Task: structure prediction
Amino acid sequence: STTLPFNSSFGLITVQGVKKPIFNGYKMLHMMGTTRVSLTGGAPVRNNGIDGFTTINAAADSLQVLLYNFYNNITVSGGDTVNLAINNLPFSGPISVRHYRIDSVFSNAYTVWVRQGKPNPPSTAQMNAIKAAQELAECEPAKDTNLAGNSYSKIFVLPRQGVSLFVLSKQSNTLVKNGTSFSGQTAVFSLKAGKVTPRGSSIRIRYELPEALGAWQSVRIQLYDMSGSLVRTLVNGRVAAGLHDLNFDARDDAGRRIAGGYYFCRLQTPEADRTAKLMIPR
Result:
């Protein structure tokens, strides 16, 4: 049926114009570099388990590590621990680390539709929520770090049937915005949502606005449920550059306590649009 956002059609985009998770798989491949470098480890058993490959770009200032946790059983759940160790990087000093993910939570419009109960057809709000999840997403905030040497390491859990892409890039000292150069600082917008304590007190939402784009910036931070309906507007106005913490009391705009489950927290400025998933225990 053409009213279904997902059906048996082939291709990377559905009839309804929704990007399938495989679309983001191709985006990850497009982000890989031009030269493949050695990757050791990974122990797939009968094609089940973690494997991947690594590349570097032509300028030798960015390294890409793509890891996937493939299982022949499509209904498998859980995850496996990855101990990622990168040695002999061609650069050192300040770097940025981006971690992109495709799994049942990130970069996956299909699972949003499934959690909605597979509506046929979805309402406007439901379709908005589906399309809000269709783009390639980062599973954690972008991180700036300073390499003491030429190595980087990280331990994390990669869900089964999930894909992670790490992009390590040497930081530039110049930001270009609307044709104008800003020197001395890299612009990095970040948004991180924590988790409500078991006692149900509050949730901390941390975000950062780069000083390179001005001392005061227009910011809107809003919370949406999985159907795409607006739950709460947390910030809507001018905010000073720098690091900020919001204490969210798990209530909607009317002051009612919201139900437990997953929500989208969205930060918007004239230069950025960031989304983080937020989980409130039931």
